[in-house]
Amino acid sequence: RKEVEQDPGPFNVPEGATVAFNCTYSNSASQSFFWYRQDCRKEPKLLMSVYSSGNEDGRFTAQLNRASQYISLLIRDSKLSDSATYLCVVNMWSNAGNMLTFGGGTRLMVKP
Amino acid sequence: EPEVTQTPSHQVTQMGQEVILRCVPISNHLYFYWYRQILGQKVEFLVSFYNNEISEKSEIFDDQFSVERPDGSNFTLKIRSTKLEDSAMYFCAISYNEQFFGPGTRLTVL
What we know:
- The complex is a heterodimer.
- Chain A is mostly beta strands.
- In chain A, 0% of the residues lie in helices and 59% in strands.
- In chain B, the strands form two sheets. In chain B, strands 2, 4, 5, 6, 9, 10 and 11 form a seven-stranded mixed beta sheet that branches. In chain B, strands 1-3-8-7 form a four-stranded antiparallel beta sheet, with no helix packed on it.
- In chain B, 34% of the residues are buried.
- In chain B, strand 4 (31-37) and strand 5 (43-50) form a beta hairpin.
């Protein structure tokens, strides 16, 4: 079973649309959760951390359901510049530091 | 957001050759990480480095790989004898909870 699972997409949406991505993780001991964005052949860039209470940053809203081991990202009023691959990322802290475990990413294409 | 630079941006090498990839954080950090991403695949953890020693490593990080921080600022990843399957993007990351990635080095092994 994959540790972090995402629908690869692509999600093709028109500008202005609302789009939601989901992610499930297998390790119940995971402690921190993130959404990163990756443009083609570029590095992952942190979009937002995901907190148990849910959090919002402008047009982006992230939710975490620890009981179901499920993370979501909602993008409202999609822009052309939102076209990218969205990576669901979890980590598990230890005394040795932490390593991030990445999902395979969900590709979003916003069309004019 | 912390800044990280990586050199070279692209490295082409022959199979069996040694390569050294470099990471330079702009400010001081204690935690460093290397990840790799084979084209079309997910980002994979290689190694974490804390207080000048390896703190965690993955199965990918075998004896062909090594890391060091030779002069207190640069953080290097060495692959001793490259294989074709080492061709990938290699990303350095810094910080502790939220990790910030450098622009990566594209390694092509011929």
